[in-house]
Amino acid sequence: MKRPNILFLMSDEHRADVAGFAGDEVVRTPTLDHLAESGVVFNNAYTPSPICVPGRQCMMSGQLPKTCGCEGWKDLSPGYRTFASEFARYAYTTTCAGKLHHQGPDQMQGWRNRIAGDMEVGDGSVRDAIPEEFSRYQPAPGTGKWSNQREVEEARPGDGPYQLFDRRVLHGTLEYFDRFFRDPLYLRPGNHRPLLFKMSLLQPHYPYFTDQRRFDYYHQRVPLYRETPCDHPVLSLSQQRLPVSLSEEAIRNATACYYGMIDTIDDYYGQALKRLELLGEDLDEWIIVYTSDHGEMLGQHGIWEKTRFYEASVRVPLIIRWPAGFRGGRVVNENVNLCDLFATLCELAGLDIPEGLDSRSLVPLLKGEAADWRNETVSQYNGNHVMIKQNALKYQYYGDEGPEVLFDLQTDPGENRNVLEDPDYAAAVSAFRNRLGELGHGAQAQPTYINAGY
Known about the structure:
single chain; four-stranded antiparallel beta sheet
């Protein structure tokens, strides 16, 4: 019997609460809402690292940053095992259209085909690079990465580079589906083998641009965050660790663009699904996943972009749909991680789950069997920033850069009160510090750390 086809839909920087199925009444996401209605929604899904490169590489490897060596802005080593390479071993045609964000010389990382990709080897991976030559050529003032302040102030209707990229991804996806399932000209379709296809879009990642029609629709409708930062030395600053001071109009423009980009990607996913149906595919027999690599603060708590362990940055949308395999229309509230997708996809497709992963199969949760689930998720950033969430308690460690933080999301969903010193939480704090050591961090860090021990 042929193994199931898998469609892996992924966006970039989509905060979990800006979607119709998540309760947002302004944004238009009919495609994602349909997947959520007929699939399983994970309300507490978290990224292993709240920034693009490590978050994506950890998801692909099924391992936390410390396990796979992606603790900073670092790619997996060449030939590293990913779920794409694992599925290729089982004769899956593994194809990615769009963003993978590999920075090293191995630009495939297990994918057998890449179309409309973002292939780019970073300076640090150039073979035999001559540092003196690279230091000679620096960008002119004002032409490098924009500050968080400028990113927001430049928000407006426009056709930016990410809009152009995503259109290429859409067109490449539709053309690939035509060839794989029909190939009307050459008559050599590839659908005798199962397909693992990833459609990976850049939006709603900043810069904050969208088309004029969507901008006009959302401009006066979007909710705005106009909060002030807290006094924590890490949590008080935006991604570039610089404060921002913005007008309401700038915040409104950026938020409208952000909503417009989510509207756009939903439309693109809808076009991809429609093309598969027109080609005769029964999508109830496909495993369909939707997620994002991290969220976007969008001015909440007075900060922008990501890299913070606030919910808006570290929590991600996650939908898994497979009507032929399990009943949909349900919501799962247990804590899960993008790393868990490796083991999950393997079990759903009938593949052996490799050893040494920080990945737990979500299949029991998909089937409503959560009794033995270890209700924990972990996220790491920049080596010494660690978040551990167990049940509703979210502990954060910042090494020498700032004090520990503990939020109780059950009593404080807005994450405004640090209860670390509250005597009622003393036992929990002690347990979190022990777990931190087991994960290879903090004063009690175990030098023999291998993996999360799941």
